[in-house]
Write a structure and sequence with these properties.
6 helices, elongated
Length: 131
């Protein structure tokens, strides 16, 4: 397990139940077997397994430490491939269906939208000054 995850787990375990800490430890070991490409994929790898909001917070902190650029560093639509989810909503339905954590669901939704929704195309020639 990465040092950041262990330190984050130790810090958060002081504030939550032992069961949450054990659940997160198991989650960390399993999730660290898959290497995430960026903050959003890190969240999608780990957040669906969060058993409660405290575990989801640990996931968020661990991914933020591993990818300090956060969601801003993830290009909009960067997860789109011919074999990927067609939209952020499709991803959310698939990845978020089993979590019991509201925070994990929010993290999954944000990540899915960033990775799988198309970038918004704007045409600056149509821009008009506000009057």
């Amino acid at each position: 397990m990465h040092d950041f995850a262990y330190a984050a787990m130790r810090q958060a375990c002081r504030q939550v139940t032992t069961k949450t800490c054990v659940d997160f430890f198991v989650l960390s070991v399993l999730a660290n077997q898959a290497i995430a490409a960026n903050y959003a994929t890190c969240l999608l790898d780990k957040a669906p397994h969060a058993t409660d909001d405290a575990a989801a917070q640990l996931v968020r902190l661990g991914c933020a430490k591993e990818y300090p650029g956060g969601m801003q560093a993830v290009p909009q639509g960067s997860g789109r491939t011919p074999s990927s989810y067609g939209t952020g909503f499709e991803c959310l339905v698939a990845k978020g269906k089993e979590t019991r954590s509201n925070l994990a669901t929010s993290l999954i939704s944000m990540s899915c939208s960033k990775l799988y929704d198309k970038p918004i195309q704007t045409d600056s020639s149509e821009a008009r000054p506000v009057q």
